[in-house]
């Protein structure tokens, strides 16, 4: 299920309709996984900061509190400040979780070993807020691929291999489509995310940067990824990891 909105009032109504408001009211502690390994550069969209601020304000206005998580090699707080979030972070005393600095548990998914931050389980309400993009020579990235940045880089190095700038988790890149799907299912088993929020600045390799003017709120990452791909990226290469997930979820 997913809902769309244009205005903030419509978005708040959708939060209530999809059950987010009730979850915040009853469980209070919210984790937001974002895409901000580095700050925005032209043609490299990150999580939309306006959407993130809107979501944070809504959480606190409804009696909750939140943490923001991303794997930023120890620089997440700096990245948030440099992206214009310092005031709201200070106003609400938001916890910043840089995943590279967290302990993890091992989860085996289709014979692959994955390492999920233990702190994810401290937050009973979990929301994914990625950037949606398909850059040149890169995979289509939205809700499912967001979780590649939910695991520590240090746990995914090859023996004797230095940290790579363009592939910071080289173990995942040995068979990337399989690993993306396996990691998503490991997260789903260990600490499932109940809500996904998409919109704002995006990038399509064939047209460049553009804005997704509607805000999408859903409870199914695969459904939203498929819909947004067909609507905005149908001229791009279709990712195999989506087909793998469709098959595995249908035959589970």
* Helix content class: 25-40%
CATH architecture: 3-Layer(aba) Sandwich
Proportion of residues in extended strands: 15-25%
Q: Choose one word for the global shape.
A: globular
The DSSP helix count reads 8
End-to-end C-alpha gap: 20 Å
Largest sheet: 8 strands, mixed
Radius of gyration: 17 Å
What is the N-to-C succession of helices and strands? Answer: EHHEHEHHEEEEEHEEHH
The CATH H-level homologous superfamily:
LarA, N-terminal domain
The tally of beta strands, per DSSP, is 10
- Please give the CATH class: Alpha Beta
Named CATH topology: Rossmann fold
Low-confidence stretches: none
Q: How many domains is the backbone divided into?
A: 1
* SS-derived structural category: alpha/beta
Oligomer: single chain
Mean pLDDT: 94
Written account of the structure:
Helix content is 33%, strand content 24%. The strands form 2 sheets. Strands 1, 2, 3, 4, 7, 8, 9 and 10 form an 8-stranded mixed β-sheet that branches. Strands 5-6 form a two-stranded antiparallel ribbon. The protein contains 8 helices and 10 strands. The protein is globular and about 45 Å long. The protein has a single domain, classed as Rossmann fold, CATH 3.40.50.11440.
